[in-house]
Queue: 3 jobs
Job 1
Amino acid sequence: MTKPQAKTKTKIQERNSRAILEAGLDVFSAQGFRGATLDQIAEAAGLSKPNLLYYFPSKDAIYLALLEQQLQTWLYPLRAMDPLGDPLAEVMAYVRRKLELSRDFPRESRLFANEILQGAPRLMPEIEGALKRLVEEKSAILTRWMSEGRIARMSPVHLIFAIWAMTQHYADFDVQVRAVLGPGHDPFAEAGSFLEQLFRKLLAP
């Protein structure tokens, strides 16, 4: 009898944890970290505050869990860059995947951007650690491709920065983009075509 009860409890815990994180994402995205409260998150999750605190001991813990989750999602496309692949194809695939993340995870992108604008008080160890190491690893691959004459020579780190800036803009400044474009436009489809053209010209050896 005890095993089925344990399984049921595990499912409930997983469901409630997901509900808290989803509610936290909504509240933090709308109110910012300082404006958000545990009461707001608990209400959005459909849980009591004491029940929420069973899963996460503080507002900071929810916020950090969301940031770490987003960082892993955000870094995956860069990790997927294949050193054995065609250089131009690999860079263009990275650009497309980053733009898709901006389209599919706009709230998460804005949450991450707000953390960086505040000086990354909670994420700095990850940024100086895993993120920096990954950028250095992929920069070395880009440098090798450049030295082989397979893509144009430029700063590999600033190339990565440019990809971040040009793709995340469409999530972080979505309201501005849509207001300027006006109705009848698909910002991400149009951005995909533009960025494809831009980076292909930029990277041509």
Note: Residues 1-6 have pLDDT under 50 and may be disordered.
Job 2
Amino acid sequence: MRVHRMPDGASRDPPGTADAQALPFEPGTFDAVVNAFGMCHLPDPDLALREALRVLKPGGRVAFTVWDVPERAVGFGALYAAVRAHGTLDVGLPAGPNFFLFSDPDACAKALLGAGFVSPSCRQAPQSWRMATPDQLFEMVAAGTVRASATLRAQSPQAREAIRAALRDTVAAYASGDAFDVPMPALLATAVRP
């Protein structure tokens, strides 16, 4: 989780990086706390939200993004469906919440209110991943993600090839001219510290 301090009239200080569940900052220090696609990697995301509330000034804002539900975030939906069909999800990763836990706007609002925030807002942020080839989705996930890439590395060679073939078929359905546009909407959740 990144926290940004924006002193009045001064240029922005470089962001700090800290454990989202145990921020090493005084209460009421920050104007904003932002978590970009990190909530699905935390063992206790509710604790992270309470920590964000603690370090925010009154009127400060928290914002986080997560992937939309797997039916709409096609890349991850297809990936996890292919792993379930051809491999295993039980690969010994550290504890974490359901990857799509906060893909439900009601779950986001409930978590934000439960942490003590007010005025929660959750909205879809449409986007897609543009790829040059149908194999690029597998390569992007393998090289550019955390839990998903660890899940792929833990599969047998035969399972990895079957997963790659399933992803290739999914991406091929999203041909757009000489490229492939795979829907990957996110959900943006925000709230205010009272």
Note: The beta strands are 2-4, 16-17, 30-36, 56-67, 118-125, 128-131, 175-176, 179-183, 186-192.
Job 3
Amino acid sequence: MTVNSPPGLAQLLGDLAIDLQHESGTEATLQAITEGAVTLVPGAWGCGISMVQGRKVTPEAPTNPVVAELDQLQSSLDEGPCLSALREQRTVQLEDMATEIRWPRFARAALDRGVRSMLSFQLFVIDDTLGALNLFGDHSEAFNEESLLVGGVLAQHASIAMIGAAAEAHFGAALASRDIIGQAKGLLMHRENLTGLQAFALMVKTSQNANIKLVEIARWVVEQHESRLNRT
């Protein structure tokens, strides 16, 4: 499928690249990932990243106040899918808060705030700190297999961003299943003078603003590059 170039898309890419060069790399990337997840992951109404030390949960880059509040509630209640993703499993899916029995107090609190389902991905361990990428749905059974795939890719990028620049050399491994995104990332790094993390954040933000899927944005970048080569 060829992406039709929407009006101003090239300018949008350039403007966002300039903005990213002036932002704090890790913080800006995490915010782009959580905001992008709401657009890119089927069923996602809200998203946040939880940093956990011991029994304390600290919300990072929440997309709205309800997300931050629910992350903090998991800390005070000492229960919830985020904590289970960190302590027991890599990925935890909660299909319906109304029938959930694993975390009854958290489920009731989530229902009171209009959240019906949830998906949590364990992030890499950093010293004594753990992390989780949390996706929230406003209806039951909001997340499907595509949600798991796209959310997993975003979780990998969040992990790398949290580890910092030392892990950036391994950035491409997170995109092994998305070769076209990896190609586009490399082209943007070279063309716009961005780091790998900034290039990914650029594509996520462009996907949001242009209302085009991330993989189609990547395909458009590659096609534009190949078209220029063919004209020379």
Note: The chain has two domains: 8-42+152-157+164-232, 43-143.
